[in-house]
Amino acid sequence: MESFLSRYRNLIVLLAALLLQVIGLAVQVRKAGPTVAGSPGEPVVHQSKDGRGVLLIRLWAAGMVTPFERFFHGSSEGLNGLWNDYVDLRHIRDQNKELQQTIDRLRLEQAELHEDALQGQRLQELVKFRENYAYQTVAAQVIGTSGSSQSHVLYLDKGSADGLKPDMAVITGDGIAGKVRDVFLHSAQVLLINDQTSGAGVVLQTTRIRGILRGNAAGQPQVINILADQRIQPGENVLTAGGDQIFPRGLPVGVVEKVVRDAERGSFINVIVKPAANLQHLDEVLVITSLDAHLSAKQQADLATSEDLKGAEAAADAERKKAAAEMEERLPGLRDPNAPAAAGAPAQLGPDGKPVAATPPVPATPKPLPALHPDRFSPGGSGNSANVDSGAGGDASDAAPAAQPKSKPAPKTPQFSGRVQ
Amino acid sequence: MQTLIPGYRRDLEIRRYPFYVYVLVPLAALVLQAWLPRVVGRFAYMDLPLLVTIYFALNRRSPIHGTLLGAVLGMAQDGLTQGAIGIHGIANTVVGFLAASIGIRIVVENNIIRMVLNFAFTLLSSALILFIMRGLLGMDWQSNWVDELIRAGGNGVIGLVLFPVLDRTQMRD
Fold it and tell me: Predicted ipTM?
């Protein structure tokens, strides 16, 4: 037994190391259940379990590397200055005259100023973006990467101490960059949108076609699982759809670069997107810490003005309604005599405050009672009616309505009713 | 062929390094691997932790040492990514074991041999990672083999510079 162990010691150690790591993979990785946004055609997603062991290893690795990255990032400008102002200048001083040194120094200073100006412009863009979009953000510097070509991950110099949490959107002034994945105390890991394991809900601006954005093998973001559509053309803007609960709706993602047919499914296409943000050279980014509106002073002033205007408009509207109600009370109403009395209608109050009985409806077909002592003015009377000049040369029956115009009803015509004050 | 077979005691001896070299060199490889892509962008065609694994495995000529060093460095690499811990770990473990096994059998002082070995082991590492991603984890993972070939070539070239520098750190009797 001992000879067996000593003979195959190397192989046993190898198998043990591999077995441990495979078991570790199996523990970490599990098939995700159907998600809210999951669809039958969606690929199987694997998620890290974020157990304590996994987090510890990741914490150790990040803890080992990020201090050095932070140091390199912080001292890079100093090293550049040291190199440019001392080593490189001494070399130049040996080869050139005094005037040439001055010119070169000025050029170097100009380059530094240009760099400062570029950085200022980038920061200005971020500030402008922050003003345009009313989200609460934290500005952060990129200090490192994952160092693996299979993993498009960045490290930021801000962490949980600065309010960062997992699944927060990371953006630049040009467009979205990625989302926060793991957060440590003073650093955070950002998964870029061109990683193959990333995912963001996007919509094509013109065609309004929605899809999922993820990276491909070449490190380009692409919108996958889209049915072939001739309307999708290069140059179309791609925006965030807002349905993934990470990226706010309407943020620029990029433009359509080209459309390629899915090799495995002929009826589907993949839309290659040229990202709006320069993912290869990210220096400063914004992390959206809250989607709640965070208005600037100017926006708050505009909002107050808008509210005032809205209040004045509402007051004027109420005034108009009140005047209309008063006018309605002053004018006689039109009532349909055939309409049934509204049950439960509120009794009208008179001027003295007592309820006033509703005006009785006019009979539909009133007929005059026969006169006890008919004369020539009595309706239906004969005799002298021939003496009445109707102006139309008609007989007495034609003249009768002219003599009593109020007694002739028009059943279908609504009658004036109500009180006249 | 004669140059490839160790015929001298010097070729068979195990190279030893101070303890701080075992600590600082892998740490520097990890830090530079994470930091240099910030400087050179997408042209960072290299895998320094893998190169360090190969170097120590070839020169220590101990499969156990190469296996363990590859496992630790690979898992540290995984710790910096968003993926599962063990993807690079398994790949570097296998590469460390094979490099040490080869280091026992052939002379690894020749620069051309070192470059070829670095190129081949880098490609092997990429193939193992792809296998783990697709085979073990079942992920819908795509790989750009042109990039992998360029990275293997980059590792081969960087190894030509790095290995002589690391040779200077070994302990002399």
Answer: 0.83
Chain B positions touching A153 (Cβ under 8 A) are: 80-82
Phi and psi of A335, rounded to 5°? -125, 140
Integer angstrom CA distances of residue A71 from A138, A268, A322, B27, B73: 21, 47, 72, 14, 22
Instruction: Identify which of B59, B54, B46, B55 has the alpha carbon closest to the alpha carbon of residue B92.
Output: B54
- Domains of chain B, by residue range, sit at 18-167
pTM over 0.80: no
**Residue of B23, B38, B102 to mutate for A, most A C-beta atoms under 10 A:** B38
Contacts of A60 (CB under 8 A, 6+ apart): B76, B79
Calculate the alpha carbon distances from A156 to A145, A286, B4 in Å.
9, 10, 47
| Mean pLDDT split into 10-residue runs, chain A, 421 residues | 79 92 82 40 40 64 84 76 70 68 75 80 74 76 86 90 91 90 90 90 89 88 86 90 85 91 82 91 87 62 70 80 80 57 48 52 56 66 46 40 42 40 34
Measure the CA dihedral B46/B48/B49/B55, to 10°.
Answer: 120
Q: Is A57 in contact with B75 (Cβ distance < 8 A)?
A: yes
In contact, A139 and A285? CB cutoff 8 Å: yes
User: What's the rounded Cα separation, in Å, for the pair A237 and A246?
Assistant: 20
Please provide the DSSP assignment of A396-413 as one string: HHHHHHHH-GGG---TTS
